[in-house]
Amino acid sequence: MLMRTIDLGGPVHYMDFGGSGPTMVLVHGLGGSHLNWMMVGEKLARRARVLALDLAGFGLTPLAGRSASVHANQALLDRFIQAVSPTEPVILMGNSMGGALSVMQAARQPQRVSGLVLVNPAQPRADDARLERAVLLQFALYAIPGVGGFYLKRSAARFGPEVLTRRMLMLCCRDLNRFPEGVVQAHVELARERHERMPWAGEAFIQAARSLVMMLLRKKRFRAMEKGIQVPTLLVQGTEDRLVPVTNSRELARVRPDWTYVEYPGVGHTPMMEIPEEFIATVDRWLDGPGRAAMGDGERVARAS
After folding, report:
1. CB 28 within 8 A of CB 34
2. Which bin fits 19, alpha (ψ -120 to 50), beta or left (φ > 0)?
3. Where are the strands (E) in 30-141, listed by range?
4. Where residue 172 sits, what CATH number does that domain have?
5. Could you give the CA distance from residue 49 to residue 152 in angstroms, rounded to a whole number?
6. Which helix (H) or strand (E) holds 249?
7. How far lies 262's CA from each of 90, 191, 207, 275, in Å?
8. What is the mean pLDDT of the chain?
9. Burial letters for 120-136: b for 16+ Cβ neighbours within 10 Å, e otherwise?
10. Taking a C-beta distance cutoff of 8 angstroms, is the pair 106, 89 a contact?
11. Interval 108-115 mean pLDDT
12. Which domain holds residue 139?
């Protein structure tokens, strides 16, 4: 497991979990980083070569004059895929905003994607979906020019990175005991580093959040991308997700009944962190079944090594 850097119009940091065979690229959500995959990366590497990038403005990847909007980061994701797997398509695994980016990539550059694993993906709201009032208010603040940035700065000054990180993890999962303390501390340490050394962090978050909200409000356009995807797809969803209501994924599963859909009762926004063993078992079953075609010729390489 190594942290690497690649130049794509500016540095892009990514975690290389090792492995051989087909390349699997893991894409974090809003406010996330490569650390979101630390519980499952090495286990996924038993089946593939696994890389988890930090998008522009997140984790250790600076803005460096780039935008952190979802459209800009999808273009960056495309460049990353071309750089790390120039001759073969990759399996994309995305959580939350990373799920939306994975859908965009598969729709816009289908020749570079062999399969999708969407983990509580950000998506248009279902007709019967209900967001918690506090969550709805928070995203409304992010969307207001000037207000979102002020809110983030005030929160950072008042509470500090450790409190804010623990609150973020509690938003993903109500019970912090589901996260090993080592996982919590790794996220806290990265948050401290961003707070102390990365003055662009708040700006990047606001850019991404605002662009994500605006994109998902165009439901017909986003649904058209989802409907056009031709690769094997696994969709997983925690039933207790406070950020992406389970009704959203249930509606998407009805739109795409050919996809494999798995629900985790009592689980929140980050199944790969909350129930890593069950999550890995789900991915393994899919790769051995409906997702087998996503492995391509690389599966033979992985099993032989």
Report:
1. yes
2. left
3. 49-53, 90-95, 113-119
4. 3.40.50.1820
5. 36
6. helix 246-255
7. 22, 32, 31, 13
8. 91
9. bbbbbbbeebebeeeee
10. no
11. 97
12. 2-304
Q: What is the mean pLDDT of residues 287-294?
A: 96
pLDDT of residue 305: 41
Helix (H) or strand (E) holding 12: strand 11-18
Contact 235, 265 (CB under 8 A): no
* 270-290 pLDDT per residue, tens: 999 999 999 999 999 999 999
How far apart CA 172 and CA 270 sit, in angstroms, is 6
Q: Tokens representing 141?
A: 């603040």
Question: For residue range 229-276, what is the model confidence (pLDDT) as tens digits?
Answer: 999 999 999 999 999 999 999 999 999 999 999 999 999 999 999 999
CB contact burial 146-175 (16+ within 10 A = b; e otherwise): eebbebbeeebeeeebbebbbeebebbbee
Q: Residue 60 carries which side chain, given as an amino acid letter?
A: L
CA distance 229 to 92: 13
Domain count, the chain: 1
- Picking from 39, 65, 62, 63, the residue whose alpha carbon sits closest to that of residue 52 is 39
Instruction: Record the pTM.
Output: 0.92
